[in-house]
């Protein structure tokens, strides 16, 4: 029953954020609690991420500040292991496109994370994957369809330059970044190649198929 109450409260927060993003900022403390609690059900965490996305869409929250809280205090610096939470986490990444020019390095990192989610559920071995019928593989792949679809949508929100070329830094005095120099003579944090994106789209164009939520 406690889990049901927590999910209900998180659902109310998500509904409030969708209805009035600015007013819902008063619920940020509650959302932090849902995200950081180790006992909070995955559904509550997913709904909290939905609420944050709604507030970012309504300009009530600054995405990169909000995502920093999600990544650190919410302990979600990378793709969550639960497919329901992961789908909302991945969808949230697309909100970084709006302020990508102001936060280029952070934007490139978010695009990287979204690209990594394109194969969620497809590249992770699971128990029973050696079975001849491949039933476990199929179930796992279907459970992560929403995450993969969200990843395509998130990438589509960013300027292609951010996704394909990454972030360039022309500071010649930074010895630490010297290690990142590439053959074109510019320092660059390698991001996603256009060929890799094309291959992913050809392998599984999920935005054009059925979306099966986890």
Task: Provide key terms for this protein.
214 residues, mainly alpha, two-stranded antiparallel sheet, globular
Describe this structure in words.
With 214 residues, this protein is mainly alpha-helical. It has 2 domains: 1-62; 78-214, no CATH class. Helices cover 55% and strands 3% of the residues. The chain is built from 11 helices and 2 strands. It has helices spanning 2-19, 28-36, 42-57, 63-72, 83-93, 104-116, 135-143, 145-157, 160-164, 175-178, 194-203; strands spanning 167-169, 187-189. Strands 1-2 form a two-stranded antiparallel sheet. Helix 1 packs parallel to helix 3 (42-57), helix 5 packs parallel to helix 8 and helix 6 (104-116) runs antiparallel to helix 8 (145-157). The longest helix has 18 residues, at 2-19. Residues 167-191 and 204-214 have low confidence and may be disordered. One of its GO terms (biological process) is regulation of post-transcriptional gene silencing. Residues 121-140, 167-214 are annotated as: Disordered.
């Amino acid at each position: 029953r406690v889990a049901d109450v927590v999910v209900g409260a998180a659902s109310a927060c998500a509904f409030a954020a969708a209805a009035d993003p600015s007013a819902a900022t008063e619920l940020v403390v509650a959302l932090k609690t849902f995200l950081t609690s180790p006992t909070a059900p995955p559904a509550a965490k997913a709904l909290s991420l939905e609420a944050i996305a709604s507030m970012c869409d309504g300009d009530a929250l600054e995405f990169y500040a909000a995502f920093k809280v999600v990544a650190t205090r919410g302990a979600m610096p990378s793709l969550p292991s639960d497919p329901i939470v992961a789908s909302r986490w991945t969808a949230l990444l697309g909100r970084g496109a709006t302020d990508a020019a102001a936060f280029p390095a952070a934007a490139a990192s978010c695009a990287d994370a979204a690209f990594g989610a394109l194969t969620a559920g497809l590249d992770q071995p699971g128990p029973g994957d050696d079975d001849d019928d491949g039933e476990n593989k199929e179930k796992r792949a279907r459970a992560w369809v929403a995450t993969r679809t969200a990843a395509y949508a998130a990438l589509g929100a960013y300027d292609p330059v951010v996704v394909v070329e990454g972030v360039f830094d022309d500071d010649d005095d930074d010895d630490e970044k010297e290690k990142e120099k590439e053959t074109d003579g510019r320092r660059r944090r390698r991001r996603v190649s256009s060929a890799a994106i094309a291959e992913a789209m050809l392998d599984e164009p999920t935005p054009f198929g059925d979306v099966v939520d986890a």
